[in-house]
Amino acid sequence: MENNKKNNLSVLIGAAFLMATSAIGPGFMTQTAKFTTDIGADFAAVILISIIFSYIAQLNVWRVIAVSKMRGQDIANNVLPGLGYFIAFLVAIGGLAFNIGNVGGAGVGLNVIFGIDVKIGAAIGGVIGIILFSSKSASSAMDRVTQVLGASMIVLIAFVAIKTQPPVGEALKSSVAPAGGFMNLVQPTLTLIGGTVGGYIIFSGGHRLIDAGIVGKEALPDVTRSASLGVGVAFIVRVLLFLAILGVTKMTNANIDPENIAASSFLAASGVIGYKIFGFVFAAAAFTSVVGAAYTSVSFLRTLFKPIDDNANIVTIAFIVLSTICFIFIGQPQTLLVVVGTLNGLILPITLAVILLASKNRKIVGDYNHPTALLVLGWIVVAITAFMSVQTVIANMGKLFG
Prior knowledge:
mainly alpha; 17 helices; 0% strand; transmembrane
């Protein structure tokens, strides 16, 4: 019994860090760096809004997954036959696009640490993901790796954040009263929500709990704690990274490279040591995100296609290989990572709406009563993120044809 409790605790923490480190990938860091340099302290408001929305979305999704004992695609098929295939396609395409950026991030990180070519570094990142999934104990190895690297990222980013001495007071004020107004924050907010719980990310930890058998109404307290920990870790890292880069933007002698904002910020803050720290953090974020994106994207296909379920590890390896090959031909990791965050933000209103409909469907959740407050807040998030999605699409179309 004691061993089961320890194993469950490890899985719960692992699920939380899988979600958090899936979110805290190269895209997460690149988005934070870019938007902090673009809008300065106003980015604090974006972080606050996105983390509130992300937490509401995460709790809704994980609770319904736990009580239904179904993965996201199966829940969708029970809401409307065939819908699960559409959702699985959206999530898998988004996950593939994100993973192309993730292996690119691994290449950038290894380039900073060792000076090797970014594409060679990306290939090494892909190989590391393949080795992890080739392990006979892939799930437990994934839990351990995400916990260790996630904790390491927090410590290293905190070190740089303290060293840059950012204007914390200005950031706190801007979090509730941004100087540029809230309407100017629509695209950054949607991108951040997408990078935190959009696309595959919101389902990553929930699917991990299903694989570990931590399901049912009796597991809800643990599920809620795990979801809270995951969002909390993502929030802490986002704030620390924002403060670190905000501090750099206030430095008069900072030389920030627009092609690699995050790396040059760490270099300006702490010299070569800071630059190498960034390389480690970025590579660690990339490795864990390669794991999270591949694992969850494939998990969306497993119950829909039996051959994939029977060969899940092989398919996951193929997913990583395809991502790596695509990056070698596409390149441009910084641009790709920001664009994909927005793409995942566009997917969120659809997937969350499906989960909220499922929460009141007795054939899916049985006699479980989903909290009314959580349901109402969930629909508010759906409405606002749908509005943001429309505004973002209109703005991008204007840029394209204007």
